[in-house]
Amino acid sequence: MTVQMRPYLSPQEYLALERRAEFKSEYLDGEMIAMSGASRKHVLIGLNLAGGLKRELRERPCEVYANDMRVQIPATGLYTYPDIAVVCGERRFEDEHEDTLLNPILIMEVLSPSTESYDRGRKFEQYRALESLQEYVLVSQDRRRVEQFIRQDGNVWLFKDIAGMEQVVSLASVQCEIALSEIYDRIAFF
Questions:
Q1: If phi over 0 gives left and psi between -120 and 50 gives alpha, with beta otherwise, what is residue 56?
Q2: d(CA 61, CA 24)
Q3: Which residues touch 149 (CB under 8 Å, ≥6 apart)?
Q4: Pairing between strand 106-110 and 84-88?
Q5: Position 159 in a domain
Q6: Which domain holds residue 92?
Q7: How many domains does the chain have?
Q8: What are 13-59's pLDDT values in tens digits?
Q9: What is the CATH number for 101?
Q10: Residue 105 pLDDT level (bands cut at 50, 70, 90)
């Protein structure tokens, strides 16, 4: 029996392929991992988050990126596409293409059934290696619930669980608030 091995790709080979690709792929340990499409709820929640953040941060030196801004974690080698990435102040990119962000302070992921355990586990582990990252937020698409992780002194992460339409998420990293009613605008739960 012959075992087929995928060829190892260098980060430079990955970026060259990714910049020409018709669909997005993550990269880790020499391998490209294709990303699947998103549901209606996932897309609407992501847009609601991006719109709310953009409005709240419009007069501040912050930029909000949704879906298509690749983030690289130099310490682990992961290249990924968070649902939302925010950078304030100086923006650092991997190269002159300015399509791979190195220093987000806030990352938000909308949870999907196929990626939830990854977003909570190995991906969050990778994200924690970003020195710039101050806050990681997981947003459910199955119920009105936001889970927030805020970096504290000593690299300790404070967890907050926010649920219910009347609640507000206070984002410490960017000093603004977004109501769950805005995050879940046009989203019905049965």
A1: alpha
A2: 28
A3: 124, 135, 136, 137, 138, 157, 158, 159
A4: antiparallel
A5: yes
A6: 38-183
A7: 1
A8: 999 999 999 889 999 999 999 988 789 999 999 999 999 999 999 99
A9: 3.90.1570.10
A10: very high
